[in-house]
């Protein structure tokens, strides 16, 4: 790949080296690299990684098993990319779609209802969710770490380039603002602390006992749905235009 010269000079260099001309973006260490802003299409490979669940045969997993695999595998796949780039909202949305479908439906052609909004599912358990990773919040927390390193006078070519190109003699933030982002008693930056701060919400006390109950995890998820009024009952199916008249299938009551 040759940059900064005319097309004629590029061809001359390629012929002299007996190689083909490459074009940007290219992939380096599995991530796209370009001299321009990366488009949503350049990150399409991240949204396709949801197909990795196919060998797990999610049809035979309980809701607790799918929850564990969603968090331990599907949510961790884009972590490296999120530590280098601030991804597009639509890319996060596409990843959420594949994670949500696996959690609620498993693997297979049979469609199932997504009973709870995904943004709520991704809240920490203390705030009423299931604790599935919010990729957008984690992306922000990981990127802020680079900002923190700059203000800690980090050394390296990457730091010199960013200071020369974007900062100069100016500050993007005040030092006081960045110190408040550390959130740790030690004064060190913590990605987990930033993620927790971004995820803050109203504490849901009536669900606290659900997670302490000594029952199988799949029963805890069932109780979580029940207390939120999000079991696939007749009235909920009607709201989703499903095959129901709104009455209970057992008692016939509405």
UniProtKB/TrEMBL annotation:
Region: Disordered, residue numbers: 235-254
InterPro entries, per database record: RVT-Znf
Domain of life: Eukaryota
A Pfam cross-reference name: zf-RVT
Domain Reverse transcriptase zinc-binding positions: 189-250
Name of the molecule in the record: Reverse transcriptase zinc-binding domain-containing protein
Organism of provenance: Lolium multiflorum
